């Protein structure tokens, strides 16, 4: 599934065969993790970064009352913690939502690769900037969007991000999150999540059944969400 990573890069810039070989050489060990496992803990010292090959992962912040906020979802092809290359620790946890398989890139190898290929340094800088843009959009959702618009926006974003790596199928995609986890993404209680899902269905916008999201009317869903994928920078622009 490292091919998903190259799809994410190539939709935004050209990657040469030599650069592709160098990226592949960055990765050594492949690890498997069960669902609902914290694989990187807040403030843990880090000397490697993790590329998600299969499964879904979340960036999470734990609260003193036992609650949890999910601040971003990660899909196959995503570096879950590339910014740890410079930060050396994170201010949040990285947790699996499903069984996952990840590839490990030691920071020493990343550094050597970026020194040899400055263009890749610019490409990965772009990818971390896109991560930051997604965080900002989630902040807008939590602070200003209604529950209905917030949920619609998450479904629109997920649809677009999975489409890049070929993980949607026409008008829908697999969606393994529980209603509790969806609430942790949206800042809603499980009861409010259920009501909002029912309202999206009543409006013939979305159905969520058997761990699958089916989008019934994408233009109207985009309108409900006030969704514009500009912040995902899904365009080729050589850097």
Keywords:
2 domains, 9 helices, alpha+beta, about 240 residues, four-stranded antiparallel beta sheet, single chain, Jelly Rolls, three-stranded antiparallel beta sheet
What features would you describe in this structure?
The chain is of the alpha+beta class and 239 residues long. It has two domains: 2-137, Sandwich (Jelly Rolls), CATH 2.60.120.10; 145-232, Winged helix-like DNA-binding domain superfamily/Winged helix DNA-binding domain (Arc Repressor Mutant, subunit A, Orthogonal Bundle), CATH 1.10.10.10. It contains nine helices and ten strands. It has helices at 2-10, 17-26, 84-87, 107-116, 118-144, 147-164, 179-186, 190-202, 218-225, and strands at 30-33, 38-40, 48-54, 57-62, 68-74, 93-96, 100-106, 172-174, 206-209, 212-215. The strands form three sheets. Strands 2-6-4-5 form a four-stranded antiparallel sheet. A three-stranded antiparallel sheet has the order 1-7-3. It has a three-stranded antiparallel sheet with strand order 8-10-9. A hairpin with a 5-residue loop joins strand 4 and strand 5. Helix 6 (147-164) packs across helix 9 (218-225) and helix 7 crosses helix 8 (190-202). It starts with a helix and ends in a 14-residue tail after the last helix.
């Amino acid at each position: 599934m490292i091919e998903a990573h190259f799809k994410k890069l190539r939709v935004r810039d050209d990657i040469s065969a030599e650069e592709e070989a160098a990226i592949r050489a960055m990765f050594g060990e492949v690890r498997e993790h069960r669902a609902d496992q914290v694989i990187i803990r807040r403030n843990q010292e880090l000397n490697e970064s993790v590329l998600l090959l299969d499964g879904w992962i979340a960036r999470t912040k734990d609260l003193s009352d036992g609650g949890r906020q999910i601040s971003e979802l990660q899909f196959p092809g995503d570096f879950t913690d590339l910014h740890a290359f410079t930060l050396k620790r994170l201010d949040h946890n990285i947790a699996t939502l499903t069984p996952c398989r990840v590839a490990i890139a030691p920071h020493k190898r990343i550094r050597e690769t970026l020194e040899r290929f400055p263009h890749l340094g610019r490409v990965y800088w772009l990818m971390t900037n896109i991560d930051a843009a997604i965080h900002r959009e989630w902040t807008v959702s939590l602070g200003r969007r209604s529950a209905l618009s917030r949920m619609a926006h998450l479904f629109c974003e997920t649809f677009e991000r999975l489409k890049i790596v070929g993980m949607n199928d026409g008008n829908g995609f697999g969606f393994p999150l529980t209603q509790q986890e969806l609430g942790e993404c949206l800042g809603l209680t499980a009861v409010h999540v259920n009501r909002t899902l029912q309202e999206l269905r009543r409006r013939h916008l979305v159905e969520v059944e058997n761990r699958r999201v089916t989008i019934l009317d994408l233009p109207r869903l985009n309108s409900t969400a006030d969704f514009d994928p500009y912040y995902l920078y899904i365009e080729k622009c050589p850097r």
